[in-house]
Amino acid sequence: VTHVTLAAIIAVIIFAAAQIKLNDLLLYGFQNFDVNGGSAILATEVLFAAIIGFMFFHETLLLSEIVGGLLIFAAATVVALEE
Fold it and tell me: Do the beta carbons of residue 30 and residue 38 sit within 8 Å?
C-alpha cells in the first residue's frame, strides 16, 4: 500500500467497532444457548460465506475448499449430535 486515504482509515475503524460488537453478541448468545448447537450453527458460516461469495462476487470454490468446508461442517455436526 503506497497511499492511505481518510476513507480507508474510517472504514477500518468502523470494521473494528463492528467486530467488537459482533463478538460481544456472540459471547452473549453462547451464554444463553447450548454450546453444541451453537457450534453447529457457527459451522454453517462456511456455507453461507460461499453462497454469498458466489451470488454477489461470482467467486467459485476449489475442490479442496469444498471438501474442507464439508469436513468442518461434518465435525461440528457430529459433536453436536453426540450429546
Answer: yes
Decide: helix, strand or coil at residue 75. Answer: helix
Question: What does 4-39 look like in DSSP terms, one character per residue?
Answer: --HHHHHHHHHHHHHHHHHHHHHHHHHHTS-HHHHH
**Per-residue pLDDT tens digits of the chain, which is 83 residues long:** 678 999 999 999 999 999 999 999 988 888 888 877 777 778 788 888 888 999 999 999 899 988 988 888 888 778 777 76
| Cell 497511499 found at | 3
**Locus of grid cell 474442507:** 68
Rounded Cα gap, residues 82 and 74, in angstroms: 12
Alpha carbons 29 and 66: distance in angstroms, whole number: 28
Q: Which residues contact 79 (CB under 8 A, 6 or more apart)?
A: 36, 39, 40
